[in-house]
Each structure stands twice: as structure tokens, then as C-alpha cells.
Amino acid sequence: MAELILSRNFSVPDAHTLRVYREGGGYKGWDKAKGMEPAAITEEVKKSNLRGLGGAGFPTGVKWGFIPKGSTAPKYLVVNADEGEPGTFKDRYILERDPHALIEGMLIAARAIDSRLGFVYIRGEYVQPWRVFSAAVKEAYDAGLLGAGVPGGGFDIVVHRGAGAYICGEETGLISSLEGKKGWPKVKPPFPAVKGAFGHPTIVNNVETLACLPPIVTRGAEWFAGLGTKTQGGTRLYSVSGHVVKPGVVEAPVSVTLRSLIYDHCGGIRGGRPLKAVVPGGSSAAILTPDEIDIAMDVDGPKSKGSMIGSAGIVVMDDTVSIPDALMVVARFYAHESCGQCTPCRESTGWIYKMTHRIVEGKGRKEDLDTILDVAKRGAGTTICAFYDGAVGPYISYIEKFREEFEALIRSGAHA
Amino acid sequence: MADATAPQFSPEQLAEVRRLQGLYPDRQGALLPVLHMAQDAWGYISLEIEEYVATLFEMSPAHVHEVVTFYTMYFQKPKGRHVVAVCHNLTCHLMGAKGIVEHMKARLGVEPGETTADGRITFLTVECLCACEQAPMLQADDRYEGLLTPEKVDRILQGLA
Amino acid sequence: MPKLTVNGKEITVPDGTNLIEAAKAAGAEVPHYCYHPGLSIAGQCRLCMVDIDKVPRPQIACNTQAAEGMVVQTESERVKDTRRSMMEFHLINHPLDCPVCDQAGECWLQIYYMKHGLYDPRMTDEKVHKPKAVPLGPHVILDAERCILCSRCVRFCDEITGTGELGIFHRGDHSEIGLFPGTALENAYSGNVIDICPVGALTDRDFRFQVRVWYLDTAKSVCNGCARGCNIEIHTNKHRTHHNQGKRVARIKPRFHAEVNKWWICDAGRYGFRWIDDESRLAAPGVTVDGQSVETTWDDAVATFAGRMSRYRPEEIGVLASPQMSNEDLWALRRLLDSLGVMHRDFAVPPREPGEDDKLLIRADKNPNTRGAQLAGLGPAAGGLDAGGILDAAAAKKIKLLWVLHHDLTASGFAASRVSAALAGAETIVFQGTNANPTSARAALVLPSAAYAERDGTFTNFEGRVQRFRPAMAPLGEAQPDWVTFGLLAARLGKAGTDVALTAQRADEVFAALAAAVPAFSGMLYRTLGDTGQMVSA
Q1: Which of A205, C329, C407, C489 is deepest in the core (most CB within 10 A)?
Q2: CA quadruple C274, C457, C260, C26: dihedral positive or negative?
């Protein structure tokens, strides 16, 4: 069994408290980092091959480097705790069970990017996680770990609750919401590292990404890189749910295969039923068929099958699932969460949901499938943010890979 | 609950508003937290509260209204004493959310989006709450409740006064 | 100053130029909705996509700055296909209201979807329904279904007027433009959102259902509502006179001028044209016989006026000219009055309500040509009385002929008693103007003026910019430009001589005479004024 790094505290009683966190070696990474040059921290993170674990998978050290050199503007570290990708729940575990890991990671990142002010944007529905995390922040302040005394000019954390909008998980949508507006993603350029929150250079990092920083600093970039694959280092937290025997958060090196996650770590399919389909990276990732699960679950594995690792939210479907029905549910989600700012997404997410709903209700038409596919392909890559591309992933893959099932439903005029 | 049609924060609440505003480089950043405060104080966010909050931020009421109508957690009409939100997104759907929703409709006698006549429960269906390992699940006020069965739903509802 | 290539053509543009403007400089039109040069970049409509060499996907042109060596294609097959896709997205929920929508004929959805051949939509599900025909304020009415959510109107109210009335509520395809409930779109520039709305979502209440736009003619003109001199277009309906209750002027639209009004006009100016086709317009000369006004000919009216005038000594004549008059009118009047030796003349009649300058366009002075009247020297001549003095002298019967041009003295800032004393005291009152009013009712002789919309001429705005206005239609009835009337009068009195200002056949000749005589206008010709005008010399 591989060593637990990110989830080592999840089952330790009271690990959310400063005392227990410290007993387990907590804040040793920060102790080391506060004696390091900011550029050296960034170099370590680059060498570790740490990738963004919120969905985009961008190299974290490289992202930090986008802040203009020599900028004297205030720089903000914004934590994306707006976890909302269907099938994903790992950040919730960190917030509730290991909040100090996030605080320690923030301190390290803030030093690297020369930030004095960090915002933690927690989705509004995460009330318990917010309470636990806020209490941990208070503990940190009381212990002098946060505040004016932090080396490098001090560091403050502002905990900010969202109010219910998936699009606030998009980094510039999050920034807009943080600024007290609707969660409308921003037109880029300018990019957040140049002009982000409140007009200043901003780095937005995912909760889990930052939680990787203490181990990287304490045990070294080479060690972290060596745990993973050529292009991505470390372990990560896989959220596995659906028709598996043991759903839950599974930590594994990023070289783990999807097959292994389903059958070794999560006990295989309930009732021994056959696998029909699996979503590898949150609902925005293209669906995979049973012959496509022998892939490493790093940033490249699912990509090789036309999908993506995204938030590593794995939803397992057995043979009782109606794929058209599942697509209708997913299409309903994207229609509900479209922010409405730009035309292709606003107009077509609603229309495509209407069509999938009609199909499931037995009123599908022959031309519906090609219409959905064509509209989706025409909209992909044309929007302000990647939300629509996340909708296009399921629209196209569910229909192309299970077309016969859709056509049968349209022909028969009845739902499964 | 205080009168939502003639809203006025207490001096302590106002001090908290100013404190929150001071945390952000631009005070408008405190808008979402202050709207949460207002909803906690008055139970929902009326148009009068929107106008009042707009004055606290020197914003046009139209732009406060934009924020209130954009986010799902701000109620523009009075809600029940309790809010029970059932997830109907992908994994919960695969794990039987539809049946849970039907059961709740039968038990409460209202459709999703409505409040029971006695004002006890506002019943909602919502998108992913990110607790898929406990699917099917719901959020009752602040708590997540998962691995739902009709029996467990009944116990949860009974516990909501 | 980056040099780039657009559709194979090399151009150089200023730093910071976006690709929509760069394409325009190269002669290419990039279709767009949300972009407006006077507002911030929204990047929402996604229509302005262009191809840029070495960039894998088409990019929006509004948010891409021209860079040295960039190679841009605005008409590649991929760009055209992308535009077609964006147009289809725009039409998904758009209602098929064209037969009842005022925007038809000048609607950018119509224009672009027809260009892309999107006649048969494949969207056959129920469209999203939203409020229709919702008045937002005195001038603007909203149809939320037609709205394409380009946000131009929201940005206008935030960035230009700073009033923030409009917002986009909810999200997804239930997004809706609207006001905060209980408020109204009442700022002084509300009508501009009608211009910038690319579709029929925000339309003009005044113009609603009046006449189809393809029947309208247009003329370039200058607003006469205040001293700003906003550039405008006058749209007239001459072809379907059974529409619009037979009114000739259908509407006024702003005309872009970089230095005067940019893209905007205030509501007072936009809707300040009703007097032009009002019943009170004077269409023929009139003489008062036995207390009744009787229509007569110009010959007769001029003869009567000349006759009356020759009865008085110059110091018994008082003339109240108006800063509503054009430079040509004012100069011809000056020449006439100088030739007669009339020194009691003025143009400054105080308004009842003093106006206020605002921070945008509106000027306190509600006259278009105060500066012109000053430069034409129509203040009192040496030893002459000003406007108030003229009124008092008329009341004291020292001034016997009171010639009032355009003013309604009973609605002015002069005390009512002072005005009625003057009107009672003057032996002969002559009124010359466009519309009948309580002052003209007291006149023995009424001479009809052509409106600025019915003729050529120039106004000088408060900054000293001399701007041309052009006729949108023929003068009403027998009305004629004031300078023509002064020429006829001068001829009758034997004072015209060879004075170009008094013998001219065309307005530009009068203007040339003004330019030759008054140094401020030195060197100006109608041709040099063009469409943007010229500043007077210091």
C-alpha cells in the first residue's frame, strides 16, 4: 500500500486542530520555506512537476512565474475552495479534516509569490467545512502563524463564502465573485497573474494543489516528482463515486490506472455487475468505455483517450444506467450553471438540455443527435471561459460513444 | 424575525459590515458576506434590503439585485424554517435521487421550489453538493445527510421542527 | 505604431488599436454587437472573431490589440463559418418579431443573419419567454425576449451617465436586462441606449409603430437645443405621409463628432423637434386687420413692414434678435440694421428658468448660436439699449416699432408686467419666427421663418465651433430663411445696394460675406466647414 501523504490526517482524530496537526509534523514545511528565497521555492515547485489539481492541470510553478517580474503592486493568493465539479469531493475532505495543511500550503505559496493577503473562497453550501476552516485560521492567528508577524511583511487570510454558483470555480469567475459581483468570468487578456482580483496580480490555486506544498518543501521536489509519471509528480486525491462497492476519497500516485482505482481501491462494481461507462475527471470530462480504462490517471492518461483528468472526480456507471438519461441530467446541470455572459454557452446549453429532455421523454427526433453534436462542435473554443468546453465534453462523448442507445430511444419513443 | 420591509442593521451589525468592508482592497468585495448577514438577520432578502445594502456600499440597487438574482443561496421570498435541498446531479441520480425526490414530494405535499403550507420546510432540488461518496444525499439547513433511504429521509424530516 | 496586415493589405495603426478598428482602417468590416468604441470591452457576443496567423483558434477582434507583424484574416472560410455559428447561437431564443418590431430595416441581427444565409432555423423547441413591451422610462421601452444581452445599455448607464439603472439579472438563458424594481430609466441621456441597442430590445416610445425606417430620408444637421451644438441626423418621412400622423420629422439621431458630442445626444435634444411640425407653425405672412390675423403675401408683408419702418426714426426702433438664428440670419440682420442706423438691438433675452451645465453635453444656455450672435455684433450698438432697456423704452413709448425675432417674451425671464407694458406701449409690433406664441399674437405683422431643419445655415457653438446644418425638407408653406426676409426688406427700403449679405441668393453666399467681414470667421467656406465644422479664430 502506497504511503498516504495528502490524506495522512483524514482519519486521525482532531487532526483539524493545530495541536494534533503539529504533532503529526505540521508546519515543518513552512519552517523550512520561510528561510528560503521566494525564487527557490518556485524552482522546487517547478521541479516537483506539481500540476494544478482543480481541473486545468497547469504546472503550478510555471503559473506562479506569470506574475510580472519587479511588479510592486500588491499580489493576492486566492484559494479556489469553490469545489463544484460533479463527482468531486476531495477538497471538502481537506477543509474539514486537514485545514492546517491548506494554511501551511498558503504560507509557502504566498512567500513564493510575495503575497501579503490571501483569500480563501469557499463555496456557500460548504457550511461545516467553512466553520472548521475558519476555526483553524483563528488558531493560526492566535499562534502567530498568520498576521503581521509572518516573515516577509506579514500574511493575512480572508475567508470568503460563495453563495451558490458553479461558475465561481472558474478562476476569473471566482475573482469576479470575490470582488462582490456576479460570478462572470473575465475576458482574457489580461490574465489574473498580471491583472486579477481588484486589478492586482493574482494567483488562483486549488485547495489540494496548495496542500501538496508542505510535503514538497519538507521532502524535496525530486521525491515528489519521482512518485508520479514523467509529466506529473506526486500523489493525488481521487474522488470515486457511483456504482462502486467502496466510494470515497482514494489517494494514489498519479501513475495509478483507472482500472486499479475502480477494481483494486474501490472494490469493483456493486453486485459484480459489468462496467458500462466511467467519467474520469468530473462531469466535464468525456466519458470512457470499459476498453479505455487502462490508462494512468495523470494529466496525460485520459487525454490519450480524448478525455481529461480534470478534478479527478470519477463517476462509475454499471449496465443499469441509461446513458441518454445520464446525459439529460448532465445537460440540465450545464444549463442551470451557465452564467449567461456569452452567447454560445448561454443560448445552447438551454437548448441542448431541452433536446436531451425531449429524447428521454420519448419525443426525440431523428435530427436531434446530429444537431446537438454540430451545435456543440461549433461552440467549442469560442467562449469566454472553458465552462462550455466542459459541457461539450459530455455532449459529444455520450452521444458518439453510445449513439445506438440514443437512436433506439428515439426510434421507440419511450425512455429506458 | 425583524421586518424585512424596513431594514436597518443594529450598531453592532453595522460595525461588522464596516469591518468586513475593510478586509477587501475594494469594499464591494464584502457584498456577498453582507448579503449572507442580511439573510441571516431577516430570513430572506427583500427588495428593501437590497436597496438598504446598496446604500451601505454606495452601489446602484440594480447591481445589488444582479448579485442577489445570480446566486442560488439568496432567497428573494421568505423561506421555510428549514431548507431541505436534495441533489439531483449525476452520481446522486445514478444512486436513486429521483426516488428520494418523489418520496419527499409525497411526504411534504409540495413540488421542488416550494415551501410547505405550515412554513416548516422549503424543499429544493439542487446541483452537485460534492458529497457524491454518500449519494444519494441532501443538505438539511447546514448539514449534509447522505446514503439516503426513504426511511432515513423520514427521520431527517421528523427532526426538523 | 504597429504595422500589420489585414486581408493582405498592410496598414499602420496607433498603439492600442484593437483589431475591429484596425480592420476598419484597412477597409474591412468586422461584424460585432457588444463592442462599442465609446464603452469598455465586454467580449460577450463572440461575433467579432477573426483569424490571426500562428494562432490556432479564431480570436475576438475587440479584445485583441494590433501588434507589429500580425497577419489577420477577416474573411477566411473559417471566419465566415464561425460567424455563421455565432449568428445561429444568437437566434436560438430570439423571437420572430420582425413584422411588429420597430428595429426592422436597421436591425443588426437581420443584417448579419441574412448575410450568412440563416433563413431556416433548426431550433424548433420552445423559446425562453421574457417580459415584452415594458416601458423603462419616459422614452425607452424594453422587449426582454429580443435582447441579445450584449450589455451595451448596462455599460452606457454605468460608464457614460454614471447612473447605473440597468442590470442583467439571473443567469444562463434566463438572463434578463432590467431595472431595479420600482425605478425608472430617467437620466437625461436615456435615449442613447436605443441607438446603441443593436436589436429591437430597447426602442423609442416616441417613434414606436410610427413609420418603417426604410421610408425615412436623412439629413445632417446640428441640434438647436443648447449651445453644445451636438451633431445630429434628422430623419424625415416624406414618402408615407399617412404614417406618423403626417409629421415630417420622424426622429432625431445623434451623429458622431469626436470633439463635440461623440456618439451621444441628450434627451432634450433628441425629442426637441415636435415644434417643427406643430400646429402652431407659421406658414404664411399675416397682417392684423381689425384685431384678426389675415394671411397675406410676402410682397404685401414686406411692403407693409417697409412702410411702417419708414415712419420711424432709427432711435424709435428696437430689435430683439435671437441666438436661435443662424450665423447667416444674424449677419444679414446686422448689415440691415447698420444700414438703417438702428442702434437699439440685442439678442440676449434671459430665460425663465436658468439652466445648468452638466458634466456631459448639456449647456445652461439653451440657444445654439449665442456665440454667433456675439460675433455678428448684434449686441447694442454704441449708445444703444439692451433687451431690457428696449422693453422699457417701448413701454415709455420712446421705442415705437418693436421687432421681436423668435422670442416669446411672455415665457422669458423678464417680469410679466414689464413685458405686457412693453407690448402695450409699442405702436407697432412685428414678430418674425417659426411658431405662433402669445407674443406673436400681439403683433401687427407676423413673418414666418423657415426652421433650421428646413434650410442651409451654420451655428457657432459655445466653444466657437462653426458647424453646418443642412435642410431635411422644404420650408413649411411660405416660411423662408430669415436672411432672405432681411434681403427683401432691404431691397424694399433701398438699402440693399451691393451688400452681398442682403442680395445673396444662397446661404453660402451670406456666410462668405460674414467670413470676409468678421475676422473670427476668416477663411471659412461651407466647403471647408464640411461635416465637422471649424473653430473660429481667437
Answers
A1: C329
A2: positive
